[in-house]
Amino acid sequence: MTRTCWNPVVTILWLCALATVRCSAQTSIGASVVLDPQDVTVIVGERQSFFAKVRGMLSQDARLNLTTDHTDLVEIFPTSIVVSPGDGGFIDRVYEIVLLGLSPGQFDVDANVLPTGLIDDAAAFIRVTVANSQPIILISSVIGWIYFAAWTVSFWPQMIVNYRRQSVVGLSFDFLTLNLVGHSVYAAFNCALFWSGFIEQEYLDRNPRGLNPVLANDVAFSIHATIATLLTVTQCFIYERGEQKVSRIAWGIITVFIVVIIVAGVLVGTATFHWLDFLYVLSYIKLSVTLIKYVPQAVLNFRRKSTVGWSIENVLLDFTGGMLSMLQMLLNGYNYDDWASIFGDPTKFGLGLFSVMFDILFMVQHYVLYRNRANEKTLQEDSSTTTTTASNGGSKDSLP
């Protein structure tokens, strides 16, 4: 039998080797650099500071070189910083860097480290916005809150009109149903991206330097819109509605949306889609609803030759919100010289303009074309006409 003898010399050597490995592991942590804050706004002709924060173990001098790709928009002082290790090789220092705004624009500034790999520079970037005017920034912010309030309040006048009349005759059920679908999927999109850390990480993986596009007011608005629309739908089951009902065309459109959602869900389940892709599908449905939801109400008003039952206050508030939203985009386009976000990708601006055009149509119907019928005297006539038309082959609010 072979006997194993304990050798104190070997043991001591083994412990020394283990200690060396541990020390090496500690010194191999390295240093990292972060630019803070990572979103900076500077006014043309003015200066704004940000900071380069370096912390960790550093074995030799390193140099931080700030990119100068946008010298026509901003000047940077200094453009290069020498970082030296402190006592024991550990560094914990903050360096101030100053920006001077020259011309409006939006871009990234990066800090590249030499020698490469000596310092972790994954967070060594900032998003810089150079603006023409600070007052315009404040005005844009105020406008944003005003149109947010206008759009939020715009859901309530219709419910008040329904309550006072104890009737929903004149309110298109197609419009209401499509609106409920649109706001529901929009709320699902906002809530998931705002509250789910998993989905937010998916977004950041695809957009490493992006910010979560969903803000708290987006979540609040979409949830409120869904609840308010659902309450209006509930009124349709309580109050007098004649023979109005959701048309087959509207049900067909909603069926298509449901099929699309199911297919997207299956693709997620089979790992063909990510959850973020599924949410994008919901956002596309919201955009589609916005394009078509006003048509049934405009057609219903035309057929009845009246806007009784359709809240003009709702239209006025929606018109106010839409106009202010587009005004804000134009102000921001000028202030940041960012016209590409409007005309290069016209989806948001185009949808706002599309909604405003329908609001103008509703105002023309209410105040010009059918102004003589916008009174309570026509209520009974509208109800009886709706009933008679339905008995002769369909509902008044069906799409052609």
TrEMBL record:
Organism encoding this protein: Anopheles merus
Compartments it resides in: Lysosome membrane
Membrane topology classification: Multi-pass membrane protein
Family as reported in the entry's similarity comment: Belongs to the cystinosin family.
GO CC annotations, alphabetized: lysosomal membrane
Region (Disordered): 380-400
InterPro entries: LC_transporter, PQ-loop_rpt
Protein name: Cystinosin homolog
Catalytic activity annotation: L-cystine(out) + H(+)(out) = L-cystine(in) + H(+)(in)
